[in-house]
Amino acid sequence: MSIIPAPKEFAFKKTLVDVIPPINFLTHNLYSYPAKFIPHVPYYTISKYLKQDNSLVLDPFSGSSSTAIEALRLGHNCICIDINPLTNFLTEVKTQRINFELQQNSTGDSKSFISINKDRKKCGTNNIYLDSFMEKMKDYSAEFFYPNWNNIDHWYPEEFKQLLARIWGFIYSIEANMPADFMNLTKLCTLYLSRYLSYGARDVPKLFKSKRRIQQLETLREKVSKNPEIPYKVFKNKMISYYTQMKSLSSILFEKNIFPEYEFTLNKSLLKSVDGDKRKIICLGETDVLSYDFPIENEFIDLIVTSPPYIYAQEYMRSTKLDLYWLDLVNDSRVRELTKKELGNKKTTDISIIMNKLRNIKTFISISQILEKTERKKYGKNGKYVPLVYNYFYDMYLIIEKLHTTLRKKGEFGFFVGNPTVLGHLIPCHKIFCEIFQDVGFKIIEIGFDQIISPRLLKGRKNESPQGMDAEWLIISRKTNL
Ligand SMILES: C[S@@+](CC[C@H](N)C(=O)[O-])C[C@H]1O[C@@H](n2cnc3c(N)ncnc32)[C@H](O)[C@@H]1O
Questions:
Q1: Does the beta carbon of 289 lie inside 6 Å of ligand 1?
Q2: If you measure from the C-alpha of residue 65 to the centroid of ligand 1, how many angstroms do you get, rounded to a whole number?
């Protein structure tokens, strides 16, 4: 195995402060996705290693698509793969080039809240009058939308459920005749409101109904009963602030003359057709990267950048459940099916097969012996953690192997990972992954750490499962010819 360079401290928030301001940068903060990237990681990797405009970036665990935002604004195309069906919506919302002005007043015309610029329909600017839009929303009384979820009553008091069912009903009733960029903004704000009015705790991404939260919601119910305008005010404020963030990305895309185009399947001819100002954003949500068969020839991708799921973290689908149901993207059986495919949540592969595949990964072998011993002591033969950890590294090995074939020769792979604690032992993921990358046929060209300021995914977890991380590691490797 080749030599690994000495680790450096990236301190991204300091070193990149001139290019990435600390608050609400572009559209990165539009949605609080669990274990979201800091934008610095995709920015750093893409801008340092992709020298040719209009290249192709892949994020195989794209989550809320931080990578796509950075790839697009730097002039590249991006493939976003994730098992979570929410990914397609978030990718589009966060990368869209908006074509409307949000006017905060009303039209004065009770019939309409939108004026479409007919002369310049293709690239002209529509006007949306927020107050008029909200009047329509408040007056709506036709078909309500109730999520197809048995458990919905567990998460809402009746009056809030009815209010949301009315707002979502209104959104779905106008959607077909409205510009998609405006509807995306509206849905995103309604998702925010749907969490705001729910029993789901707001300081942890996981869906969790705490006593404290129940009390908070009781107070809110009382306030809303006296002042029914409160939810609408929350919605309106979000519309304005999210619009401003969307506008900041759109201005960059406008200046650079970049037009994103969205595709929901991947094929080679699609990518060939990318020309001039267009950039393809390929949204492959609801896709298990482990079983996905890339329908493109090998050595096609120019750069990969990603942050993988944590070991034993089934949080992503669960955290986003309210949103998935309000957006009508899933039903109960689909959620169960997809959750089973979430990495870090499986224990199906035979341990001897795993050990054979990972036989050269020395750090894994030594930590696995320690974990097994601890688990046996604590739980006898019935421990559940060790099989999850084994399966996790095995699956990740297979994925990295597959991604190696899709990457062009000498292409780079940026991998951002933390070191969790399992059964009281720190798992040196950065070392294990360095060895996996090398075993698969990569050369490590850069490695370093960055302090975690707010590890949101990890809040509220029990001792046994991954926690205690205070730094994450960026490993950049290059495909070599084995
Ligand atoms: C650490 S998060 C990525 C967050 C992302 N970098 C962002 O900025 O939002 C890891 C992602 O891996 C996804 N994931 C888990 N298992 C997967 C699988 N089998 N195939 C594809 N994606 C998977 C999760 O849904 C989650 O979105």
A1: yes
A2: 10
Ligand 1 touching residue 341 (CB < 6 A): yes
The reply to whether 124 falls in a domain is: yes
Q: What is the pTM of this model?
A: 0.94
Cross-strand pairs, 404 = none
pLDDT tens profile 381-424: 888 889 999 999 999 999 999 999 999 999 999 999 999 999 99
Q: Each residue of 226-268: pLDDT tens digit?
A: 999 999 999 999 999 999 999 999 999 999 999 999 999 998 7
Residues 57 and 18 in one domain: yes
Residue 87 Cα: closest atom of ligand 1? 27
231 lies in the same domain as 184: yes
In angstroms, what is the span from residue 67 Cα to ligand 1's centroid?
A: 12
For 401, residues 6+ apart whose C-beta sits below 8 A from its C-beta are 440
Give the closest residue to 482 by CA, choosing from 447, 438, 448, 444: 438
348 and 438 in a single domain? The answer is yes
Which of 12, 25, 37, 83 is the best mutation target for the ligand 1 pocket, counting ligand atoms within 8 Å of the beta carbon and taking the most?
A: 83
* Cβ of 33 less than 6 Å from ligand 1: yes
Is there a single domain that holds both residue 263 and residue 395? yes
Residue 94 falls inside a structural domain = no
Q: Are 319 and 206 in contact (CB under 8 A)?
A: yes
C-alpha–C-alpha distance, residues 25 and 383, integer Å? 43
For 121, the domain range is: 100-245
Q: How far does residue 110's CA lie from ligand 1's centre (Å)?
A: 44
* Same domain, residue pair 339 and 468: yes
Please answer whether residues 403 and 61 qualify as being in contact, where contact means their C-beta atoms are separated by less than 8 angstroms.
Answer: no
- Give the number of domains in the chain: 2
- Choose the final residue of a domain: 225, 245, 265: 245
